[in-house]
Amino acid sequence: MMAAGVKIMGKVTKSCKVSRIDEKTFRMILTQGLNRQIRRMCSALGYRAQRLQRVRIINIDLGALAAGKWRELTESEVAGLVAR
Q1: How confident is the model over 41-54, as a mean pLDDT?
Q2: CA 78 → CA 19, 27, 71, 83, distances in Å?
Q3: How many angstroms separate the CA atoms of 80 and 84, rounded?
Q4: Burial 48-60 (b: 16+ CB within 10 A, else e)
Q5: Which of 6, 7, 10, 16 fits 41 for a cystine, CB–CB 3.0-4.6 Å?
Q6: Residue 68 — very low, low, confident or very high, per pLDDT cuts 50/70/90?
Q7: Whose CA is closest to 31, among 48, 52, 13, 43?
Q8: Is the separation of the CB atoms in 28 and 38 below 8 Å?
């Protein structure tokens, strides 16, 4: 249901990929980034997002990068951004 889009803020979100990891955990790949989108999508379907973890932005894998920290992009990451 969530994968097909959810009506939030007066419009339906773009489709996304959703896979269940366990009873209370799932993974989402968004194609759009509305303000608080995941929390609002969950709320619209009667769920409550307790913890979110961003693992990737476009072609950039965040790995173990701590919250509030940054790192230099690799040459291949920059090339992937430029090619878009």
Answers
A1: 93
A2: 29, 26, 13, 9
A3: 7
A4: eeeeeeeeeeeee
A5: 6
A6: very high
A7: 13
A8: yes
